[in-house]
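Colleagues,

For the teaching module next term, I've prepared a clean inverse folding example: a structure given as tokens, and then the sequence designed for it. I'd like students to try predicting residues themselves before seeing the answer, so please don't circulate the second half yet.
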């Protein structure tokens, strides 16, 4: 379930949108009615549910959203449909980290580590250093154009801010995970708590639940 690409190659196609909170919850509720992706996609495209400027843009957004939703368990999906806005944001961030190994590793190795160390704000230079380090093991990402690399960086920081994990000035924000969110994630994958800026003792406690 975690990581759409193989361990040897990152998937770097996350420029279609940032967190996409409103758009994803709309699609999720349509899907819940039929539990069929083909029916859902037809309905979303025909009604322009995503309010896209062109049919191609709408299809691209829908591919991104459906790919994220498919990483969630049934219980996580239901919480996304019916939970609080904060639960929805946290589930979307979880789904993004599951879909994109590159983002997951940035969340664990940079964002959460900075939170645990009470370090300074995260800047674009931190991202650039992370990118260079990963390029040594994944040379294909170095083949991306400078424009694409810049767009990926911009979108990732926007995702972090929209998920409530990063302040406007780049400081990592400690977050509160609801009991409902903790329950559906602990039943599935305790390891995935590490994509959030939370304390080690909290993760250990949730693992015992």
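(Answer key — instructors only)
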């Amino acid at each position: 379930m975690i990581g759409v690409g193989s361990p040897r190659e990152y998937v770097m196609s996350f420029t279609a949108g940032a967190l996409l909170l409103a758009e994803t919850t709309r699609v999720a509720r349509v899907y819940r009615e039929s539990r069929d992706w083909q029916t859902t996609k037809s309905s979303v495209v025909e009604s322009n549910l995503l309010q896209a400027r062109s049919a191609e843009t709408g299809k691209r957004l829908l591919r991104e959203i459906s790919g994220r939703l498919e990483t969630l368990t049934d219980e996580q999906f239901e919480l996304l449909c019916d939970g609080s806005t904060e639960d929805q944001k946290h589930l979307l961030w979880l789904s993004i980290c599951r879909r994109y190994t590159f983002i997951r590793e940035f969340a664990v190795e940079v964002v959460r580590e900075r939170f645990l160390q009470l370090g300074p704000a995260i800047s674009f230079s931190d991202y650039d250093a992370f990118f260079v380090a990963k390029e040594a093991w994944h040379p294909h990402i170095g083949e991306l154009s400078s424009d694409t690399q810049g767009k990926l960086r911009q979108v990732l920081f926007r995702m972090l801010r929209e998920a409530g994990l990063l302040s406007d000035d780049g400081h990592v924000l400690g977050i509160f995970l609801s009991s409902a969110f903790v329950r559906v994630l602990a039943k599935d994958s305790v390891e995935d708590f590490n994509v959030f800026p939370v304390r080690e003792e909290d993760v250990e406690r949730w693992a015992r639940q």
